[in-house]
Amino acid sequence: MILLTGSPAMAADTAYLEQTQYLTSTPTDSLATTCTSKRITLAAGDYTWGNYYPGSVQDQYLGATTYTWTTCLDPKNGYYRQTTTLDPDHSGWANATISDDFVISPSGNWTWGSYIDPHF
């Protein structure tokens, strides 16, 4: 897992958490899961956040705090599962998670990840 420090999201700026790596079009459960993570401080407001493939999207109000934003790519037999989590530092708030299954073709270097888009 890679831990990067993030800066506060500015109004109307979309934040990205992504990784480029070689992906096979025939993944198996025996391949390693890859994760990337960073800390991001968000202002209170409405956000859209989602995964790149196939594009699961969630609209959600997020409170003002710092979050650990993590996205993981888990190879399965014939497909990949991407799970993205926002884990707030504020102890009274719950984690938010989205997950997608997708197939890639052809094998090669792919950029996968997630984004957070403020609505203000």
β-strand percent reads over 45%
What is the spatial order of strands in the main beta sheet? 1-3-6-7-8
Overall structural class, as computed from helix and strand content, comes to mainly beta
Task: Give the overall silhouette.
Answer: elongated
Helix content: under 10%
Poorly predicted spans: 1-6
> Secondary-structure element order, as H and E?
EEEEEEEEE
The chain-level mean pLDDT equals 88
Tell me the Rg in angstroms. Answer: 15 Å
User: How many strands appear in the DSSP assignment?
Assistant: 9
Number of distinct helices? 0
Q: How many strands, which pairing sense, and closed or not: the largest β-sheet? A: 5 strands, mixed
For the terminal residues, how far apart are their CA atoms? 31 Å
SSE layout and pairing:
Blueprint (H helix, E strand, L loop, with lengths): L2 E2 L10 E9 L10 E9 L2 E7 L5 E6 L2 E11 L4 E9 L7 E7 L5 E11 L2
Parallel strand pairs: 1-3
Antiparallel strand pairs: 2-9, 3-6, 4-5, 4-9, 6-7, 7-8
